[in-house]
Hints:
By secondary structure, the chain is an alpha+beta fold. It folds into two domains: 2-170, no CATH class; 250-337, Sandwich (Immunoglobulin-like), CATH 2.60.40. It is 48% helix and 14% strand. The protein has 14 helices and nine strands. The strands form two sheets. Strands 1, 4, 5, 7, 8 and 9 form a six-stranded mixed β-sheet that branches. Helix 1 (2-15) crosses helix 2. The longest helix is centred in the middle third of the chain and has 33 residues, at 195-227. The two termini are 38 Å apart. The model is unreliable at 173-188, 190-194 and 240-246 (pLDDT under 50).
Amino acid sequence: MEAALQFERQRxxxxxxxxxxxDRRKVVRELLSERLRLAYLWSYAKHRGRDRAVERTRTAxxxxxxxxxxxxxGSSFLSWLFFELRRAGGPAGSRISSSGCPEPxxxxxxxxxxxxxxxxxxxxxxxxxxxxxLDDYRFFLSDAHDxxxxxxxxxxxxxxxxxxxxxxxxxxxxHAEITGKRSLRDRLPLLRLSGSRLIxxxxxxxxxxxxxxxxxxxxxxxxxxAQRPRDGSTLKQVTKVAPPIGPRLEHMDGVSASRNGEQLIxxxxxxxxxxxxxxxxxxxxxxxxxxxxPLRATDYQVPVAQLRExxxxxxxxxxxxxxxxxxxxxxxxxxPFGQ
Length: 339
């Protein structure tokens, strides 16, 4: 177990600084992706609603990624994700332990590996908060989730949303925005099937393909007859031109955002070749709350009163784009806004 913890620690160190390094983004994305099922099912068990569970899981994933440098040496990555899930539930879950209690990761470590400690055992016996924390973490780790709960949770749909979110945030964001390219799991849903389900899916696919071919052939014959000239003249051949592929955007570094009283302040570094910029502010569900006009400066302020449905303490994202006239050159991607 200690060897596994050391290896995980190396991965955490390799993921730090992912905000400015594409290779490190891949590491943090893998760390988060491996824990999606546990995180989502625990959130669903708390809310009993898919949308709220997805939102809580996404919030915890972002917070975990942005606090990698705060993970104690003895804590596992999974424990830290669990703490962020509890904090994402609001003020009631943000209090992980009480004053005078051991560090929370020492409590959850009892569910992961044998840590003989008479003092720790005695403390848990007499502290209801730490005992509840340990029991909740054991449930979080449990693979024996109620099958009926898993079915009601719409896990297959939720994992598609969460993996798409991870790919958009920690993957090649500019490429995804331009091409709309989805992950391999989204493009090949049959990879998620096995056994009898795969056979059934294959039969349905073959039947659907046959029907589609018949319909296509009938439509082609009908179009051919409809386009045939009635005066005996010949048709002109029309050459179809493929639409041009958009430019590949560069990543913008040095972006920041903060709140000063009733003003939100955004700033960024000057981007080579750009003569204007644009700032967009989103909710946690990526609803657009505010979009600036084209800007010449490298900073921007917007009154909180101009933001639709702004709630202090809630989770938000923002994106800064660099342009040359109307041509996009670079983007910061989606960046969490910390209040």
